[in-house]
Design goal:
- Chain B: One of its GO terms (molecular function) is NADH dehydrogenase (ubiquinone) activity.
- The complex is a heterodimer.
- A five-stranded mixed β-sheet of chain A has the order 2-1-3-4-5, sandwiched between helices.
- By secondary structure, chain A is an alpha+beta fold.
- In chain A, strand 3 and strand 4 form a beta hairpin.
- Chain A has a single domain, classed as Glutaredoxin, CATH 3.40.30.
- In chain A, helix 3 crosses helix 4.
- Chain A contains four helices and six strands; from the N terminus they run αβααβββαββ.
- Chain B has 21 helices and 15 strands.
- Chain B has four domains: 212 residues, NADH-ubiquinone oxidoreductase 51kDa subunit (Rossmann fold); 84 residues, Roll (Ubiquitin-like (UB roll)), CATH 3.10.20; 74 residues, NADH-ubiquinone oxidoreductase 51kDa subunit, iron-sulphur binding domain (de novo design (two linked rop proteins)), CATH 1.20.1440; 56 residues, Alpha-Beta Plaits.
- By secondary structure, chain B is of the alpha/beta class.
- Classes of the chains: A alpha+beta, B alpha/beta.
- The structure holds flavin mononucleotide (FMN), iron/sulfur cluster (SF4) (3 copies) and FE2/S2 (inorganic) cluster.
Chain lengths: 127, 488
């Protein structure tokens, strides 16, 4: 990547990246896995591996996994946020290996709810 | 739909971007505040915005950030420094760790903004070595920002130079105090020194230095992007914006929360936190960690901000909230915090070094049933003396957990001292484990689990505990299927 050399450059990069992301979220299922110390300690990596494995088994080919920081729900770790194209993202918590596979088979594949959905309890300031 | 109780400004990106991908951060208008400031702004303009926003330090002291920056900006020197305090040592607190692991670029960006405002070209993050993941992500952010030309020499062609390095702390609580932190960064023992001089005039290597907390910094890019007026419209008269708290202890929804200043304690504990688990009664919450005090059910309607908490004998602190229910003994809680401070005092000054030990000894006596009314007076008198005479903020606040629990839970202290009882059933020396004759069916289970064989009785006969031999382990209580054994 070339250096950013001016504020105009930065803004251009920002715009392009934003449209790229929007396009991606229209086509792809985005799974964000909470992988800060808290998430990792409660098994977040295992959940991600199980989901990746199940996605491959089910032959779903439009899933993108992202490692993100703490989702703040200590009480329900491990947590993942799933964003299906055209739907509001949902956070699923208290996942184990089995729950992770169920999530792929039910929600990712057919859009059917399963497991523990954590209600969003905040307003987020977006810049 | 009912408006949400939480508002996320500092933690806006945590859980939403890949912290190891600078492009993700730039995509959410990352580095825009820095770019605008250095391209179209002036240092004085940035400081003016910070002052107008009303942002106060989130590391515990609550000092207005813009005012502090103005001091450092006004001091002339060949070199100035920006220090990020990531020492986070309060028991039960993990706000700064979550921010560094979830959104490290916002800290990098904010440090560069501070450098521009005060005229510093070097930033240092003092971070505890026990935070390996935060360290890894921070190092990657700094390297990526350099590669993208957002750190280093001549940033965005403006002539502004700024770079960041890391210093690791060994995890001493007192090293979070800014003067001890500076000593530790210089390679000396982490012992505080008297202020003035304040770091803003003579800090790291004797040069003007701004020390800011991680969460303070995380608020800065949004303030500059959305404007000081937007920020100051949130919160109370003298406490603007939000505060991140780490909810821990006897609370259903353990976790990280970010709430606007002015929210009530009740909203935090019951609506966001979901109250105490297992249907237990809420008793108190410790804010400000070992420097703070207990708020109780009487404070449920108090709007949380810097001034109200101090008026209630507690303090905001860095954001740890340890919730206690009816099963917690407040004397024992005070002893827990004193245990911590007794270990963590740096030992430089007498009131704190010896005073913490003496306070702890008295609390031990009380919990063992050997306390006297004079001990209670001594706790208060000694606590007040330590507050008046200790050298740094550590010693000056260390008696707070004792003084605040004595004030609000006087009855509980008296029960230990006068009646030799622990109402919460925690202090082992003051308990008796007894079998209720009317409920015991003589199944013999308890006598088989007792590790010291002090329960006697025949099959189908009422069992009895030999009080002199009982070690109060509680195993028999758990074993009895007829709820015939109780603590009292
Ligand atoms: C005993 C003691 C421990 C402290 N620990 C921390 C800490 O872990 N993190 C922190 O940011 N500030 C801590 N502080 C406060 C710092 O001295 C300093 O006020 C703060 O870092 C300034 O940043 P702010 O204005 O952004 O809050 C501590 C203070 C004392 C007295
Ligand atoms: S008050 Fe305590 S921590 Fe502070 S300098 Fe004195 S001994 Fe050290
Ligand atoms: S276990 Fe309970 S019911 Fe059985 S002998 Fe002991 S006290 Fe009595
Ligand atoms: S509390 Fe422990 S030591 Fe005491 S009687 Fe019960 S099992 Fe035995
Ligand atoms: S600190 Fe991240 S979920 Fe608890």
């Amino acid at each position: 990547m070339a250096k950013i050399t001016s504020i105009a450059d930065l803004k251009k990069f920002q715009q392009e990246y934003r449209s790229l992301k929007e396009a991606r979220s229209r086509e792809k299922i985005i799974v964000s896995v909470s992988l800060a110390t808290c998430g990792i300690a409660s098994g977040g990596n295992m959940v991600m591996e199980a989901m990746k494995d199940e996605v491959a088994r089910q032959g779903i080919d439009n899933v993108e996994f992202i490692r993100v920081g703490c989702m703040t729900y200590c009480h329900s770790e491990p947590t993942v946020e799933v964003s299906l194209p055209g739907r509001e993202p949902l956070v699923f918590g208290k996942l184990d290996e089995n729950g992770a596979r169920q999530l792929v088979q039910k929600y990712l594949k057919k859009g059917e709810l399963t497991g523990t959905v954590i209600p969003v309890n905040y307003t987020r300031v977006e810049l | 739909m009912e408006p949400k109780k939480q508002l996320r400004i500092a933690t806006r990106n945590c859980g939403f971007i890949d912290p190891e991908n600078i492009e993700d951060y730039i995509g959410v208008r990352g580095y825009e505040a820095l770019a605008s400031a250095i391209t179209n702004g002036t240092p004085a303009g940035v400081i003016e915005q910070m002052k107008k926003s009303g942002l106060r330090g989130r590391g515990g002291g609550g000092f207005p950030t813009g005012v502090k920056w103005a001091f450092a900006a006004a001091n002339q020197a060949d070199q100035k420094y920006v220090v990020c305090n990531a020492d986070e040592g309060d028991p039960g607190a993990f706000m700064d760790r979550a921010l560094l692991e979830g959104d490290p670029h916002s800290i990098v960006e904010a440090m560069a903004i501070c450098g521009y405002a005060i005229g510093a070209s070097i930033g240092v993050v003092y971070i505890r070595a026990e935070y390996p993941l935060a360290i890894k992500r921070l190092i990657k952010s700094i390297e990526d920002a350099r590669d993208y030309g957002l750190l280093g020499r001549n940033i965005l062609g403006t002539g502004f130079n700024f770079d960041i390095e890391l210093k690791y702390g060994a995890g001493a609580f007192v090293c979070g105090e800014e003067t001890a932190l500076i000593r530790s960064m210089e390679g000396s023992r982490g012992e505080p020194y008297t202020k003035p001089p304040f770091p803003a005039s003579a800090g790291y290597w004797g040069k003007p230095t701004i020390v800011n907390n991680v969460e303070t910094l995380a608020n800065i890019p949004p303030i500059l992007v959305k404007g000081a007026d937007w920020f100051s419209s949130i919160g109370t008269e003298n406490s603007k914006g939000t505060k991140v708290f780490a909810l821990a202890g006897k609370i259903t929804n353990v976790g990280l929360i970010e709430v606007p200043m002015g929210i009530t304690l009740g909203e935090i504990i019951f609506e966001i936190g979901g109250g105490c688990p297992n249907g237990k009664q809420f008793k108190a919450v410790q804010t400000g960690g070992p420097s703070g005090g207990a708020l109780t059910s009487r404070d449920i309607d108090v709007p949380i901000d810097y001034d109200n908490l101090i008026a209630r004998g507690s303090m905001m602190g860095s954001g740890g909230m340890i919730v206690m229910d009816e099963d917690n003994c407040m004397v024992d809680v005070a002893k827990f915090f004193l245990d911590f401070t007794m270990d963590e005092t740096c030992g430089k000054c007498t009131p704190c070094r010896i005073g913490s030990k003496r306070l702890h000894e008295i609390l031990c006596r009380i919990t063992q049933g050997e306390g006297t009314l004079e001990d209670m007076e001594n706790l208060q008198c000694l606590g007040a003396t330590i507050k008046d005479t200790a050298l740094c903020g550590f010693g000056q606040t260390m008696p707070n957990p004792v003084l605040s629990t004595i004030r609000t839970f006087m009855d509980e202290y008296r029960a230990h001292v006068v009646d030799k009882k622990c109402p919460a059933g925690v202090c082992v020396s003051l308990l008796e484990i007894v079998i209720l004759a009317e409920s015991c069916v003589g199944c013999t289970l308890c006598s088989r689990v007792c590790p010291v064989n002090c329960i006697s009785g025949t099959v189908k006969g009422v069992h009895v505990i030999d009080q002199a031999a009982c070690i109060k382990c509680g195993a028999c209580i758990d074993a009895c299927k007829f709820q015939a054994i109780v603590k009292r």
